[in-house]
Design a protein that fits this description.
Structural class: mainly alpha
Number of strands: 0
Largest sheet: none
Shape: flat
Helix content: 55-70%
Number of domains: 1
Radius of gyration: 17 Å
């Protein structure tokens, strides 16, 4: 996967392979099943996950990531 340059956005979507914890995958499968129940069809859990990634602001994740590291360091000191 090629990273976009800061001055030139990617012209089309880029595929990405990610590992998901089983519980996360289960939530998207469950959401897919609920969408099928409500509408009779669903684009699939992968599409729902791509919507979530699109809507999430990565800058908001920085605090979560840093807090997780700090918490881990504190636990290791104890």
């Amino acid at each position: 996967m090629v990273a976009p340059s800061p001055t030139q956005p990617m012209p089309h979507p880029q595929p990405a392979l990610v590992e998901l914890p089983p519980a996360t995958l289960d939530r998207y499968v469950e959401a897919d099943q609920e969408l099928q129940r409500r509408l009779g069809k669903s684009p699939g859990p992968e599409f729902l996950l791509s919507l979530a990634v699109e809507r999430e602001d990565p800058m908001n994740l920085i605090d979560v990531f840093c807090a997780t590291i700090v918490q881990s360091l504190r636990e290791n000191r104890a």
